[in-house]
Design goal:
The chain has 321 residues and is α+β, with helices and mostly antiparallel strands. Among the domains are: 107 residues, Immunoglobulins (Immunoglobulin-like); 84 residues, no CATH class. The chain is built from 4 helices and 16 strands. The strands form 4 sheets. A 6-stranded mixed β-sheet has the order 1-9-8-3-4-5. It has a 4-stranded antiparallel β-sheet with strand order 10-11-12-13. Strands 2-7-6 form a 3-stranded antiparallel β-sheet, with no helix packed on it. It starts with a helix and ends in a 9-residue tail after the last helix. The N terminus and C terminus are likely disordered.
Amino acid sequence: MKLFVFVFVVYELYLCESKGISAGTPVFVLKGEDLLLNVTAADALQDVYSFSWTFNEKKKVLTVEPGKKPHVFPNYTRRVEFPVNNFSVELKNLQEADSGVYTAVVTTSSGGDTEAAKYKIKVQDRASLPLLTVSSVSRNSSSCSFTVTCSSQDSHINSTFRCDNQTYSQEGGERSEGIPDTFLQVHQSSGSIICNHSNHVSWTNTTRTIKDVCAKPYDPDPPNPVPIILGVLFTILILAIIGVLWCLRKRRTSKRVIIENTVYDTAQFGPPARTQDPTDDEDSAPPLSSTYACVGPHTGPAAPTETRNTAQLESVYAQVL
């Protein structure tokens, strides 16, 4: 039984090795990069009549004869460089459509064809940044457990973590999954959860600390009402002061307008009014007119007593300003 198993394993290894040789040497290239394909079978270059590189065994890349310039086919114009001395070829600015099998074929003088090199090219883009999400968090005084999901555009994996007094354990997520040649992995290291996304040409990751995941949610204290009340009172006080100042200014403006609108006339002096004769008839007497003046203190020489007494009997009127 053991001998049967051993023979079966050797046979499988032989098949895998045979498939690898027939398929060509696997090479992974980052999108946009250049790749040099060397000729590995040096003995095949002893009797060369013509040499060619082909893509997927049907599409010609270039052909060359010793001593002549290589002929590059239209689809690869300005996309390859060919040093004639060793028959290697450099592919420029590779894209995903350039993935496939490239074969170097030597045609001998006798007309036979020999493979001098064969490569299986896989062009890959950079691995995208994975998304790490946390769910189902359970906390108590001594432990914490939670589930994380590590996902990319094409696949995702889940894993459950448990923390007991700085001791971490993990269930699931350690395996790699995804589309061919692309991998996802979740693990913990130095107190952090790490989600890796990689392929054969690049890798990237997203991390999150376990302490942040297991921390109790922050419960803020209720706001203190005192600053709010003081702020409202201060605002009311400021508005009241502004209102009082505005009223006082308006009142002063009104008084100024009244004073400026008051008009005074100029005093005019006329002849003294005729003294009414007691013997005159009321109907014949001229109409009386009232004249007012601003009377000031007497500044001239003192009049005789008689004259003064006589003048007192007369009514003198002046026209007021």
